[in-house]
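Hi everyone, sorry if this is the wrong subforum. Our group has a chain we'd like a structural model of before ordering constructs, and none of us has done structure prediction before. Sequence below.
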Amino acid sequence: MALIPLFPLEVVLFPETPLPLHIFEPRYKEMIGECLERKQPFGVVRAEQDDFARIGCTAEILQVSRRYDDGRLDIHTAGRQRFEVTTVSSERAFLRGEVDFFNDEGLDQGSMEQRRSAIKLHQELISLAGEKLDKIDSRHEQLSFVLAGGLPLDVDFKQALLAMRSEGERLKTLVTYYEALLPKLRHTLRARGRASGNGHVS
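Answer:
Right subforum, don't worry. Here is the predicted structure as tokens:
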């Protein structure tokens, strides 16, 4: 059990995923200042209306890229370790939470076929979006997070993925999600092409 600062945001952070942040609220300037001084991470939890998700991921501050005269900060962080919030403390200006850290359970890393399929579908999505393809290591222990963390996917889906404690289960879920998403994306792009081409499409 550990007590860590909590930062509710409208994002889901995965382990090893980069997260640049602009810090401007006084309470979070205070929080980040303490984290920098103590060289400690903070917890990112997905904001949900007046509450937040109980499963989150710590963020390590890698670099302060800019400091403003009024105390605002631009920082580069990266996801590190998943946790579950058990108790919330609001004694400080910012929230803190007692958390239990957790890793995957069991040895299911997904089959190599599953891994190749996930990468292939991911690269197809990236290609359709017109983005540059990066080389991906199919043997990465947390391949699912590497893939899903690099795409602007539905936050509910990302939150569910973050909570899963099996890489094999996450990969299976991700492949199913990609297979459902790709036809919709292709249809949208074709429709956009027809509209811009005034109905003429090859």
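For your construct planning: The chain is about 40% helix and 30% strand. The mean pLDDT is 92.
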